[in-house]
Each structure stands twice: as C-alpha cells, then as structure tokens.
Amino acid sequence: MKKIGIIVAMPAEAKCFQLAEIPNQKLLKIEKNIYLYISGIGYDSSAAAAKILIKKGVDGLISWGIAGGINNSVQTGDIIIPETIQNNKEIYYTTSKWRRNIMSHFHTTPYTVLSGKIICIEEILGSSAEKIELYNKTGAQAVDMESAAIAKIANEKKIEFISMRVILDDLNLNLPTLLTENIDGFGKINIRKFIKSYKYSSFTFSEISSLVKKYVKAQRMLKEIYKEFKKESFFFINNF
Question: pTM higher than 0.90, yes or no?
C-alpha cells in the first residue's frame, strides 16, 4: 500500500474530511497512509507543503479543493480532474492511469465531471471579463492557485500526481473585491474590515448571498467526492 498526500489551501476545503481539528500547516493523518496538509493560498505555500509530504515518504500527491470556472460550459458544483496543469508557459501532466480510473467511475455517477486543463494564477480573478480573457488565451476550463506548484514538485520527484477540484465561481459570477481583499492566506475573512468595506461597495446583498449559495454547493460536492474516493479506494495508487 502506498502513501498519499493531500494538499488543500484553506481549512474550509478540508471540512469534507470530517476531522476533529484542522490546524494550518500541520501534517495530519486522515487514515492509514493518507495524509493531509493545509498549505495556505498560493504557489509558494503549496510547493512547501508538497516538499513536506514528500519528506514523509508519500508516493502520490493530490491537489484538492475549489477552483474558478473560466469556460461558459463550466458550472458551480462541476468536478474537474484535469489532464494538464499550466503555469505561465510550463505545462504539467497528471498521472493518466490514476486520473482515468477516477474519471471512469465518476462518469457512472450523476455528477458532472470534466477533464481538460487548469491554469494557475497568482491573484484571484474577480470579474467575468478577466475570466473570459484568460480562457481565450489558454483554453483552460478552470483556475486555481496551487496545482502547478504541487505538479512541479511531483514531476521533479517523479511521483504520482492528480488535481481534484470543484468549481465554486463560474464564468458569470463576479467575485466582490470586498471579499477578496479581506481574506488572509488561509481564506479567513476579517469580519471588521469586511463590514467596513461593504459600506462603500457596489455589490448588493443578493450578489453576496448568491456567492454563499455557490460556496455551500461546492462544499457539499467536496464531501460527495471524498465519499466516492473512499468507497472506490481511489486514494490507493497500487489498486490501479
């Protein structure tokens, strides 16, 4: 049996694992040979997490969590298991056999599952216009801020790698700057600053409410994916 390391940027993305505690930047054991690390948002944080898990002796890495949709066919709650991860001009391939087995299973479920490409970005894309521009340049289905770093380390160390993401914000959702500017490196909102910013924001309560509903939907899907992974033993590479 091989060891798997799961990297998530924010504690909220790890709630699906139903752990009693989810401390940041601590090596957590979900069950035998399955480890979790809350890295923090971004390239450097996730690269550091990948290196820590490799020192632990993992044989495969999973980039896990939410992503933003930039293709108009991608909707909130859709699952994306990309074939490739792009970072600027660098392209990394996910482990094809591992990915294909997972894809084959999810095609038998009622969930929408996509492949294609995730492109990694340095800053959150807030507007639909920015998402459209990036899609036109890259042809990617979605964006995140961590998968490229994890893929790079996995590639260098010649270990298995996949990315498992759920779409939170689709192409038509504009993320309010009052949210993106008032979160820390682990996705925690500074409530005081958020309320102060809201007074001067053009975003309405209904728009924020819509985002919350999408967030809840994405979280629910992460829980369903985890259940399927456990049931089908997708955390164990040697099963394939």
Answer: yes
